[in-house]
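Sequence of MarR family transcriptional regulator (Ramlibacter tataouinensis).
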Amino acid sequence: MPHPADSDHALLLDNQLCFALYSASLAMTKLYKPLLDELGLTYPQYLAMLALWECDELTVSELGERLSLDSGTLTPLLKRLEAAGLVARTRDAQDERRVHISLTAAGRRLKARARKVPGSMVEATQCTMPEIIRLTRELRGLRERLAA
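Predicted 3D structure, token representation.
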């Protein structure tokens, strides 16, 4: 009997883990959009702000590592956040190649308005908190195995 991975069954779109992850990501981002529009943020900008709300000052490389983004993607995003008055970028006095990102007062205030986003997303997923915790843990584990 042939192994299921060797059959045409393995090539069905709906049997692809990558497609399940991709389409779920698209659906999640679509749900986030109206909530983030109210905050004046795109989804990648929201992720950057989440990281900065956790730790107010990070270097661009630390933020890129935290978000799994390269500096070519991150720099324009940070420039837009700076233009919006939410973050400040400053060069390191000892090493000008290092750029520090910190929240402005407006960036810190935005956190209060963003507090409703996670609850709204939990409601939109129609998942229980234990389900969300389990899914998050499983996806984090998958990401770590893929990165290894």
